[in-house]
Design goal:
With 278 residues, this protein is of the alpha/beta class. Helix 8 links the parallel strand 6 and strand 7. Helix 1 crosses helix 2 and helix 3 runs parallel beside helix 5. The radius of gyration is 21 Å and the shape is globular. The structure holds ligand C2E and magnesium ion (3 copies). Ligand C2E binds next to strand 2, helix 2, helix 3 and strand 6. This is EAL domain-containing protein. It comes from Cytobacillus spartinae.
């Protein structure tokens, strides 16, 4: 079949490309059906208040369990969902599901429990986004101040003026806004001053190796100080050791999240381990 295609070299490359394209297409067709087939669920990773050690909320993290592929990580399928536009439907499912779950937990007694939901760039740029958030709040009965939307710097910087207007609309609704993976993007300090945000979430790459006498500690310290100056809360993500918790407390970091504290939990584990103690 390669006779007319211009020789071996080209055939070699195109075969490899075809294979990659096929894998992608296969994944895409699976992803298209995943919602209807109920293959998604959310895990909830606790967020703790470092001054009290108590859980005040959680971050919803999507999981895809495909019968043939097994567990596919969001790092793999979220980018594909973004490129194909499937993220609109998936993201809207995540938002509703997370709001409904958090409201349920509040009614079970954790009245001030908050929920953080990741929002991808494509989802954020949809004209219907604000309406979608409004609907999720209305349908779940969750009060807006208990919902935090996590955006990355790159999402916001795609179109900074538009982003600011959407963020202002969210603030007007009473929803909180957080910058996720903070420190890995390119937001300049002058942008930061003008962004209507409530929380900075320090990227886990700065926290994972955090020790005394490292450059990371200088960076983390600077971000926390800046957070205090800007009157925003600072969350450290990716806390993996006791030493890191102690350092973060010393630096007056408000909140923390990480495997050392809790892994992302299934609903039942969240309820068994945490709900009573909140
Ligand atoms: P993220 O929003 O920064 O979420 C934190 C990620 O770090 C999660 O990975 C979490 O399991 C992991 N993590 C938490 N603590 C630790 C720790 O101590 N050490 C290490 N090494 N990792 C830790 P996950 O669940 O695989 O999600 C990866 C990314 O996928 C998320 O990063 C987020 O960008 C995206 N994502 C996850 N769920 C959703 C969703 O529902 N919608 C959208 N748009 N994106 C999502
Ligand atoms: Mg996040
Ligand atoms: Mg993050
Ligand atoms: Mg991240």
């Amino acid at each position: 079949r390669s006779k007319n295609s211009g020789g071996n070299r080209i055939t070699f490359f195109s075969t490899e490309m075809n294979e990659q394209a096929l894998i992608r297409l296969e994944l895409e067709s699976y992803l298209r059906k995943a919602l209807q087939k109920n293959e998604f669920h959310l895990c909830y990773q606790p967020l703790i208040d470092l001054s009290t050690g108590k859980t005040y909320g959680s971050e919803a993290l999507i999981r895809w369990n495909h019968p043939k592929l097994g567990l596919v990580s969001p790092g793999e399928f979220i980018p594909l969902a973004e490129e194909t536009g499937l993220i609109e439907e998936i993201g809207s499912w995540v938002l509703r599901t997370a709001c409904i779950q958090n409201k349920k937990w509040q009614m079970m007694g954790s009245r001030d429990l908050t929920i953080s939901v990741n929002v991808s760039a494509h989802q954020f740029s949809q004209p219907s986004f604000i309406q979608e958030v409004t609907n999720a709040l209305r349908d779940s009965g969750l009060e807006p101040q208990y919902l935090t939307l996590e955006l990355t710097e790159s999402t916001m910087l795609r179109n900074i003026d538009y982003s600011i207007s959407v963020m202002k609309a969210l603030q007007k609704l009473g929803v909180r806004v957080s910058i996720d993976d903070f420190g890995t993007g390119y937001s300049s300090l002058s942008y930061l001053r003008n962004l209507p945000i409530n929380t900075l979430k320090i990227d886990r790459s700065f926290i994972n190796n955090l020790k005394v006498d490292t450059t990371d500690i200088a960076i983390v310290k600077a971000i926390i100080t800046m957070g205090h100056g800007l009157s925003v809360k600072v969350v450290a993500e990716g806390v993996e050791t006791k030493e890191q918790i102690e350092l973060l407390k010393q630096l007056n970091c408000h909140y923390a999240q990480g495997f050392y504290i809790h892994k992302p939990l299934m609903i039942s584990d969240f309820e068994n381990n945490l709900l009573q103690t909140i």
